[in-house]
Input
Amino acid sequence: MNRDKNLERIRTRRVSWDIVIIGGGASGVGCAVDAAARGLDVLLLEQYDFGKGTSSRSTKLIHGGVRYLAQGDIPLVREALKERGILKRNAPHVVKARSFVVPCY
Output
């Protein structure tokens, strides 16, 4: 991707976008992908590089919300597990089961 060429294409475009998303972190990219998958014409704007801070600060775990069990937020856990299942089905090349030990003090 050449940033200067992309910016020039944006500046000279004569047709408007269906949606413009400002911020290319995990949420912005997720919204852009979802909108594009629904057939919308999407412009995603990011000041730096896409996912610059979000990805580097992430644990990269798709834990399914189990950590919210301690707070008693069962609906959130249920929703997170459902979403994790969708991710596993849609992107098995990215989502892999990992075993690990959680110490209890």
The chain has two domains: 1-58, 59-94. The longest strand covers residues 19-22. Helices lie at 3-12, 26-37, 52-56, 74-90. Residues 59-94 form one domain.
